[in-house]
Amino acid sequence: MSTPPPHQYALLVLVSGGLEELAGKACGGAASMGKILVKVPTLDDVQRFVRECRVAQTILALLTYDLAVEGISARQIETIMYEQSAWDAAEEIVGIERGEAYAFRASCVRDGLHDFKSYDVMRTMGHAVLMRHPDWSVSLGYPDLEYVGIVFDRSVFLGIVVGKPQRGSQARPEKADFNVVPYCDYMSRDLQLGSVPHCTKMRPSVALLLLLFATDGVPMHGNMLDIMGGLGTIPIEAATNFTYVNALSGDINRATTSQAIKNCQLARPHLAEGSSVHARDWDAAGLDGLVEHGSIDWIVTDMPFGNRTELKKADMARVMRAISLVLRPVTGRCVLLSKGYKRLDKAATDVEELELLERRMVIIGGFVCYLSKYSISNDHLESTTVGDSED
């Protein structure tokens, strides 16, 4: 009996911190601290994984990693990169041709608990690459390849971005930000959504993880609603990833809703079997007058925050009351992503029907945020049933 071939290619998948176990289940890898290590035997498997891994913000062809570097320094990271990297396998993943000269840049993401700077790591990484490829050149604005170093405490991960570098300004490369990971959600998606100037666009990979958090990692079906839907990213992800989902996005801003409607139209050729997606304008606080009571299986919403858009206390209370009326009893789930949770808790205390099932701290776009999952309280259902029977 022959033994299977050893794993040859290693990928490092970067996802939203706090949601690693959901992402790990979705793409089949060992998850920790916002990173998932995946090993596959062939290049065909690599290409298939990149096309199908829809929870990834960034995928790196892993060069090497070390979880406990003694006396960590920028110079030591250079030595680790040059001497311990699986250069051939990683370069094969990203399609580097032997004998060809490439332009590259190096980036670093670091937790700050060191006596060296991210720039020092970028410089030593670049030196390690040039020692291996002396005929290559450095280009901040027009790179063919991007090498990324991730340094947290004594842990070091080094890799090459799978896909073209998608970050930085070609017009003004000196303004490019090299201490954040690249944005490459769309390697696994044929759909590119439009935007409007005043509204930020959620990464599709984050939207999908929020949906999986709502369902505890299982496929979603039924009626799904984003009550403050912005550009419609969350409902579109629901309708394109899960079968038999009726997804609806609503927002109070007319210009944003207009773009969300266009995005839903763009998404329709990509919908999963039996699914639909629509958008309309509304005030979420008046949701209970627009949606049939007890008809919504899933509410998943990124709550607005900041001086311009954050909800006032009275509006928050009205929104929570409306949610309690439209959410389906027993099985319905509501997930709210917010910058903080004290105002949310205050609003929820006045809505006895809602029960907090889980709260989780997550890292979204570099911000510490909180996911709160609600359902209709069983105590409320029992008291309602008793009251009905007495009548």
UniProtKB/TrEMBL annotation:
Q: Which Pfam families does the entry link to?
A: UPF0020
Q: Which GO terms describe its molecular function?
A: tRNA (guanine) methyltransferase activity
Superkingdom, taxonomy of origin: Eukaryota
Q: Which Gene3D superfamilies match?
A: 3.30.2130.30, Vaccinia Virus protein VP39
Q: Name one GO biological process term.
A: tRNA methylation
What InterPro entries does the database record attribute to this sequence?
RlmKL-like_Mtase (IPR000241), SAM-dependent_MTases_sf (IPR029063)
Query: What sequence ranges are listed for the domain Ribosomal RNA large subunit methyltransferase K/L-like methyltransferase?
Result: 201-362
Give the UniProt entry's GO cellular component terms. tRNA methyltransferase complex
Coiled-coil positions: none
Q: Which PANTHER family match?
A: THUMP DOMAIN-CONTAINING, TRNA (GUANINE(6)-N2)-METHYLTRANSFERASE THUMP3
Q: Write down what this protein is called.
A: THUMP domain-containing protein 3
Q: Which organism is it from?
A: Perkinsus chesapeaki
